[in-house]
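The record is kept unedited without comment:

——
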Amino acid sequence: MRSSARSEDGWLESGAGRYTSILDVEPTTDALSAAISEVLASYGKAADDDQVLVQEMLTGVVISGVVMTRTHATGAPYYVINYDDSSQDTDAVTAGRDVRTLVVHRSSETPASVPTTLAGVLDTVRRIEGLIGHDALDIEFAVCGEKTQILQARPIVMAHGPAAVADSDVDAVIEQARKALSSRSAPGPTILGAAPHFSVMSDWNPAEIIGTTPKQLAASLYRYLVTDEVWAQQRAEYGYRDVRPCALLFDVAGHPYVDVRASFNSFIPASLPDDLAERLVESYLAQLQAKPELHDKVEFEILFTCLTPDFATSSERLLGSGFSDEEVEALENALREITAAGIARIDDDLAVLPGLAATIDEIEASELPPLERAAAQLDAARRSGTPVFAHLARAGFVAATLLRSLVATGALPAAEADQFLASVETVLGRLRSDAWAVKQGSLSWEELVARYGHLRPGTYDITSPWYAGAAEDYLGPIVERASEPAATAKFEWQPQSAAAITAALADLGLGVDAAAFDHFARSAIAGREEGKFVFTRALSLALEAIAQYGEALDLSRDELAHVAVEDLLRCREVLADPRDFLLSRSDEGVELHLLSQAVCLPGQLSAGSDLSCFEQDEAEANFVTNGAVQAEVVVAPESPSVDVAEKLVLIPTADPGYDWMLARNIAGLITMYGGANSHMAVRAAELGLPAAIGVGEARFNALASATVVSLDCSSRTIEIVG
């Protein structure tokens, strides 16, 4: 029994899911009458011409789902098929359970790789479009045997009106992207490996930091400060291959992708010969192709970037892939040198931060004009801030990898490793302590704002408000809810654990004992967060200076967000009309951003065919802590006015600018993007907060439609409760 009221499935309002549908009704008069009455009752006051559809209950269902013949968000020209092929339920998609998602560009032919059953569904959907004379439809289907059954068809109701981008423009940009992808196939002079691969998360996590369709200013700042050169500079200084001048990011229709082949090259020890290095790169790429769900965990699951206690075991997969004992030993020796050098340099890297912080403050206090001040802050960040942050971030990865390996080999109990991580105070812990100090009167409000005011939820986004601009909203509630920090005893390793750590590291020949490891790991994990805290101060102050410059030209933050940093810095030259120049660039940026939002792309690319047909990745989430929580869901709380206390918060991307949220006693955290050692993973470990980092787009969207979700990190499960 399915609802068919006049108040649903209209052109202006869908009412999808508003009324009752009843499955498996017994074919008796009483059962039919009762079911029809129940559906009618769900209408409230039924109109005379309201109806109830009576449909035959299908059996032998092999696939069921829903086809959107255009994207719901932008009306872009794609068939989006959410389907369930693992059960015989016909309501798995509409009930919000985990399903698979296939995306097919409307103008492209259905690829041979699409399963026959889904190809038949698409053929049927195209026929329905022709019969109705409308191509924005929401069609519910089921496949029984080889026959496609259409259960329901309704128009897609789009609040935004017609698509902002013409279908022909999307078609054109896909063709341009296909050519660009082909041209990038050949490796550059510093890159080894034949087959290219691209991912939104494998290195420096652009999807997490700037999003999958960033605006021009954010994207260009990320390239300028990190991914054009500094990323490779840091790797070379650390002892890996120097891949410069290869950039890390590759722009595909406004979507930033990591060049995975270049990334993997940059993690090969520089001391290894080219032939061995190339075979390692090829082996790593093959492993990722075989297990694409690991694209946000490559450093823990695929690459060998430092020497760990489990190397003898984990390197067996190299022996099984044709590498000789001598080659594995050469890799081991090279990694030993890199790891020992990385441990030895941690204090020197940390020592850079006070001087950098002083330079940033001097620039901010100077009398430079706003745009010159912005340029100076960005120069300080690029020359010193990003490199030292990159070194500290690399040390943080080494520390986390060593810690995981010590647990994996049995040298260290997992619970004790968790206790160690919880004992490492990062910026978030300091913020909570300082908030308590303000509440008690031992620290001034002004000093709190001065220390943390540069943070913003979107680190590279000029439209994202910084804490200083809305201090009462962001920091005020943290002070109001602050409590006295619990007095905790200084963490100390258990004697047997300390002995095991010392023995394990001695076997590796790293020249450090448990005490030295504790110092390194604690310094690296906290230093990584501190390095970003200092570096992003320069970036945030630069964004505010750019906004100040724009204000003098009567340009809004929204307009400036669509201008690349290179064009902004050009305005330091003598231009006849900088406002006209920037407005022109902004208009172009708006068009490019709209186009990028209309183009649907997968989380990973390896061939031109991926541009027109792909299945959304099934991401393997990174679970933090062993905690469990069942709570009401809050999705993407951009404003600090949203009540997140005791809620399970879902955020697509998250960086340290969301510390305002973490300091408000949320019950748990789920993100769409993020790696096992991302900033949010570190924050959650510090707080003992149940979290699932990087669940992927498909799972995230299903969870976002729920009211109550259960997250159990110990069993690695996420379930929709209501």
In short: The chain has four domains: 2-155, 167-303, 365-554, 618-720. DSSP finds 28 helices and 19 strands in the chain. The first strand starts at residue 2 and ends at 4.
